[in-house]
């Protein structure tokens, strides 16, 4: 009868301390599992029953994670919003899910797993399909009109410096959002020489080198419901966050919309709280859809990325200047380390030629600019 001596005294055929006659490796070094088999007199003795796991069997967990990541990138529109607006939350940070691809790749190479490497093709193709076009510079020289949009920030400590920087940007049409009433006079003074025409409604405004006309507020859902309906028009106008105006150009009238949609909050329990913003996006989408002017520009802080399904009513009718003619993702917020693009320039009936970011100002947003042509 075979005995196993774990103390290394060499009393039997198997010595786990490596001091006896056996060739058994209990350290898991890859020489195979050992089956003691029939250890009786005349029996065959210990034998190996398996070899090291092959490259097609290693890394199954990594492969599963890669497949899940790929499905998330390809099927993100199917993620429901019923619980905490999960779908919109994922879509807000969708480009950043690409960072998991090199992490999984490193794990697959470390494990020498062919299975995981093949599974990684799904998220890689999915991410490139969504964002690969943003990795190249699509800008073109020329253009007829330069437009700039900037959330100047109500707490901006240097309104005068911000105004001077924007005046030097070369913009023909400049849209400002989150105008603090106390700072409005500063912007009007600093921008007056460069822009002889301007209009302000509530906390949004347009400054232009070209004449403006037919300016009116646009409902962006900030006063929805019976309580909002009960407020007098002059009270609503004080904090109005959307306007529409007409710019007279040599090529005909251009409808310009400026909007600052409601803010969103991310709560560990409630998820993404975006009801007011979503209502504003729907309202703004209806306004753009009803616009009879052939040429339209939408400028503003939309408080969300255009991958978010909340903007479907807008993106189905307008093109993003950054996606059509930009270089990179063009992240705008927060200005110190931008991680999302929530400040947008969208067009209809115009051709985007280039799109870029302007240097930081005293605001927590970066200004966005685009050159368009007829």
Q: Shape from CA axes?
A: elongated
Spatial ordering of strands, largest sheet:
7-8-6-5-18-17
Mean pLDDT: 87
Decide which structural class fits the backbone. alpha+beta
Order of helices and strands: EEEEHHHHHEHEHEEEHHEEEEHEHEHEEE
* Individual helix count: 12
Unreliable stretches (pLDDT < 50, length at least 5) are 1-34, 225-230
- Alpha-carbon distance between the termini? 94 Å
How many beta-strand segments? 18
Instruction: Tell me the strand percentage band.
Output: 15-25%
Largest sheet: 6 strands, mixed
Assign a percent range to the helix content: 25-40%
| CA-atom Rg in angstroms | 31 Å
Give an overview in words:
β10 and β11 form a beta hairpin. The chain has 12 helices and 18 strands. It has a 6-stranded mixed beta sheet. Strands 9-10-11-14-16-15 form a 6-stranded mixed beta sheet. A two-stranded parallel sheet has the order 1-2. α1 (60-74) runs antiparallel to α3, α1 runs parallel beside α5 (121-131) and α6 runs parallel beside α7. It has helices at 60-74, 86-92, 100-111, 114-119, 121-131, 159-167, 181-191, 226-229, 233-238, 275-290, 312-315, 321-325; strands at residues 4-5, 14-15, 34-35, 47-48, 145-151, 173-177, 197-201, 204-208, 212-217, 242-249, 252-260, 265-267, 271-273, 296-301, 319-320, 343-348, 351-357, 368-373. By secondary structure, it is α+β, with helices and mostly antiparallel strands. It starts with a strand and ends with a strand. Mean pLDDT is 87; it is low at 1-34 and 225-230.
